[in-house]
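Weekly modeling sync, notes
Attendees: S.R. (lead), two postdocs, one rotation student

Agenda item 3: backlog of single-chain predictions. S.R. asked that every request posted to the team notebook include the full sequence so nobody has to chase files. The rotation student volunteered to paste the first one in as an example of the format we agreed on. Action items at the bottom.

Example entry:
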Amino acid sequence: MRKSVRILTVLATAGALAASMPAAANSAPEDTPAKGKDIRNVIYLLGDGMGRTHVTAGRERFYGAAGKLNMERLPVYGAVSTYAVEKDSDQPALVTDSASSATAWASGVKTYNAAIGVDSYEKSAPTLMEQAKKAGFATGNVSTAEITDATPAGMFSHALLRGCQGPTYSDASCLPKNADGTYENKPADTTLITPIAQQVARNGVADVIFGGGLSRFQPDDEKAMKAQGYQVLGSFGDAGLSEQTAASQQVATKSELDKVKKGKVVGLFNRGNLTVENAKAKLPAAAAEKQEPTLAEMTKKSISLLDGASKKGFLLQIEGALIDKRSHANDAEQTLDEVKAFDDAVKAAVDFAKKDGHTLVVVTADHECAGFNIIERGTFTNAEAAAPPVNVDSGNTANNSTPSRAGGNVLDRTRSTGIVNGAGAGDAKNFAPATFRTADDPAGVKDGSPEASLWLTYLSGNHTGADVPIYAFGPGADVFGASQDNTDLYKKMYTSLFRSQPAKQQH
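Predicted structure, as returned to the notebook:
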C-alpha cells in the first residue's frame, strides 16, 4: 500500500483533451501529503460507473502506458465492494445501482436498488451532509447529472424511489409496487414521497449546489431558496405558468458562475444532465451548451465558496456522472473523455488540498458499469453477437444513443463502424471492439483503425458487481488504503469530520 493522507473529495467530469500528448506528460512521482495536520475539510469525488478498467483505459488513452491519471498519483489506494440488498431484507443483491450505493456511503446503511436515504425496510437514515450541516460545517453538492439524480440526491434527500425527482408527485415515480402490481400505501413519513427537487429547495442541506436538472424545479422552489439566502443563477421559471418549459426557464451559465464571489449559491446549467464534453467541443461557439462549466470549473468555484465559509470547515461531494451514462450506451469514445474530465476535477481538488494542508480528498466510484474491457489488439470478444448489449438505461436523456464499438465520429451511432470481425454489416460477427490511439502510438495512427493500440469492448449494457478503486490524499487518508465496503466510507468520513466514532444508525 502507498502512504496515507487525510482529504475527502467527491468529483465529477471535465473537458476531454486530445490523445496526442507525450506519454511522459503525467508520469511525475506520486503526491505525498503533509503529516500531522488536523482534518477540517472533506472532499469526496465520485466517478459514477468508473471501474478499474475505466481508469486504466483513461490513463493509456491520454498519458500512455507509463503515465498516470491525477487520481492514480494519490498516495493511498484501496478497493470498495458495492453490493446492495433486497427490499425488506438483508439478503445481498450483488449488483447495485447508484441510489443504493449513494445511500451506503452517505448514510452507512445497505438498501434496495432505487432507494435513497432509507434502509431496506423504508426507514429514513440521516446523511453525512445533513449531519455536517447540523454541526455547523459548510456543505456543497456538485454533479454533471441532474442534481436530483441518485448520486447527488443521496447526500441531501430521502426517497423510496430514485425516480421521485419532480417537479410533481406521481405514484408511478414515488411509490414502490407490491408483488401483485399495486402500489404500496403512502408512508407516514411524507418526506419519503416528496419530490427530491422540492426537498432540496427547502431543506437547506447544501450551501452550494451546482449541476443540471432545471426542469425538475418550479418557481416556488426558487422562491423557497431565495428565502433561505441562496443566490439563484438563471431562473426556475415564470410563476404565472402551470408548466415550466425551456422558454420559461433560464439555465445558469458559466459567465454567471464566474461572477459569484461568496455566499450560498445554486446553479443549474442544463434542464437535464450536463452535456458530454466530447459533444460540447464539437458544437459551434454560439451554442447554449458552450455556456456550461466543466466539472473542474464547478469544483474550483465550489471550493472557493466553501473555504472559510465556516470556522469548522466544509464537506463537498463532486460527481462525474457521465462516465456511467456513456458506459450504459457502450459509447467508448465519450466514456474515455468523461474519465479525463473527472480526473481534471480531481486535480482541482488536490491542488487545493496541497495548499490547505487540512483537507482530506477521497476519489472512488459507486459501481462499475458495462463490463468495460481492454483486449489484445487484433482479438475479439462477443464475436457471435449480432448486436451490442441492450442499453437498459436508454430512457435517460443523457444515455439514449445507439451503442457503438467504433472510435471516430460520435454523431454516427447507427452501427459499429470500427474493425469488423467478419464480412458485411449483416454478418453475425460484425459486433466489433472500439479502437483508439494512445499517447504512445505513432503520430499517423487514428482512432477506429487496426493500428490503434487501445482495443476496448463492453460485456453489458448495465452495471456489474465488480469492486471499484479508491484513492485518497491528505491527513487521515491511510484508513482508505484497504479492501472495504461502501458503507465503511460513511464511517470513515464521519470520523474524519467529527473526530469520533460514527453515530449509530437506526434501522
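Discussion: group reviewed the output briefly. Residues 1-29, 403-430, 500-507 have pLDDT under 50 and may be disordered.
Action items: rotation student to repeat for the remaining queue; S.R. to check formatting next week.
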